[in-house]
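Students often ask why inverse folding is considered easier than folding. One informal answer: many sequences map to the same fold, so there is more than one right answer. In these notes we will look at a single instance of the problem. The structure comes first.
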């Protein structure tokens, strides 16, 4: 599937005359090392958005409790629509009444290395690994490092929403730190909290930031 087709659902859900989120129309050459971003989204319910670059888009998962550095933590994750690569840079306020209305900060960002492999031990593309229900990768971010896996444990055919688990590998980067309080966490880009981003948006005369 082309990136343009993959982003159709993302674009249909948003009114870009009201939200400052990127339209996703700009074509970008794939980076030598694919990127990842973790955004904290204070929407109807607080959650982390975990996104991995693959096939010209960001493969996205909503993770309510956020990625953990502790291998004992199994974080519930729900796949969402593919997002444009430009979304890596988005930090601001989505207006109330719009899809996903609320404040967003970039909690972590960096690159990753695909560790996914088939039964023969050969590497398989991340998108195919996700389609098959299990993907492994090594993160090289400002806050998150080392191996992680996403594993599907429930499909839509089971009569419920598709569901996954995001789990840290047991390696030299594992720790018992878990995940910080999202309301006190700071942006990896600007050092701002969710509250500070929301307050600045109001001072600037609106909810677009």
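Output (designed amino acids):
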């Amino acid at each position: 599937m082309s990136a343009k087709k993959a982003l159709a659902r993302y674009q249909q859900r948003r009114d870009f005359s009201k939200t400052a989120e990127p339209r996703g129309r700009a074509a970008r050459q794939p980076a030598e090392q694919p990127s990842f971003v973790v955004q904290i989204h204070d929407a109807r319910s607080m959650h982390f958005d975990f996104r991995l670059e693959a096939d010209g888009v960001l493969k996205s998962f909503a993770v309510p409790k956020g990625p953990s550095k502790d291998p004992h933590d199994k974080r519930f994750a729900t796949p969402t629509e593919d997002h444009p690569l430009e979304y890596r840079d988005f930090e601001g306020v989505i207006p109330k009444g719009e899809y996903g209305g609320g404040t967003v900060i970039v909690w972590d960002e960096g690159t990753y290395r695909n560790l996914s492999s088939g039964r023969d031990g050969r590497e398989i593309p991340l998108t195919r690994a996700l389609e098959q229900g299990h993907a492994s990768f090594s993160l090289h971010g400002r806050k998150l490092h080392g191996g992680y896996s996403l594993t599907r444990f429930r499909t839509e055919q089971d009569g419920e929403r598709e569901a996954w688990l995001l789990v840290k590998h047991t390696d030299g980067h594992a720790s018992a730190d878990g995940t910080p309080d999202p309301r006190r966490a700071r942006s990896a880009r600007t050092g701002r909290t969710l509250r500070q981003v929301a307050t600045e948006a109001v001072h600037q005369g609106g909810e677009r930031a």
